[in-house]
What does this fold into?
Amino acid sequence: MPILRTIFVTLAIVVSAVVWAGEVEDGDAAFAKEDYAMALKKFKIAAARGDAYSQTQIGAMYKYGFGVKQDYPEAIRWFNLAIAQGHMLAQFELAEMLIDGKGVVQDYTEAVRLLKLSAIQGLSLSQHELGVMYYVGKGVVQSYAEAVKLYRLAAAQGLADAQSNLGFMYQNGQGVVQDYAEAVKLYKLAAAQGLARAQYNLGIMYGNGRGVVQDYVRAHMWWNLAAVKSNADAEKNRDIVAAKMTTQQIAAAQKLARECKARNYKNCD
It folds into this structure.
């Protein structure tokens, strides 16, 4: 089963484009320095003037407990202010809360509605999450074809979870013609971003010779990298394949894993 959910903290990656640029930029800078009290102060100044980005950031601070006591109702209040202005990140964040039932009654249908509004605006996170809803059939009629369509949109923007989930669908022929080579290609894109599940799946492909020439050294390398990130299945498979390898092969795989990690998972294959 692929990893279906994207863990996302708005404050960590969003770039602001707002009227109250000075206050927002100061808020972003303070947050980056982990000066959450100052960040909240600056965002609230801009939010009071109607800035949707700042409203979303404040909501995220309450949602995740950055510099404040985690408070889901307060987070929802701020997200709704931003949603009233059509802010796609606020739509995504509240949709996540509706899916998980955090601070609100679980409501897949309303979550899907918000995700669609956000996905239409091009937010890869919402495209991916909506794909998840179609994949599992929550709030919508289950549809692999629709999931593939949405994963492709998000994967094209470089979202690792979408690349990995789309790869899984190609590997298993879900909503697409089974294509191991395409699955490997997508897993490699996600693995290069450090996604443990994609690294684990690459190990599967190398271990079984699907879409690539069977290579226990490469399989061991990818499973080893995923195991370091507490992927229990990867650790188990690494140890199983190690029993089929020579001491020299294991040493080579370990060396490749060290080098790959040192390169931040880039150009490892």
Notes: The longest helix spans residues 247-262. Residues 1-19 have pLDDT under 50 and may be disordered.
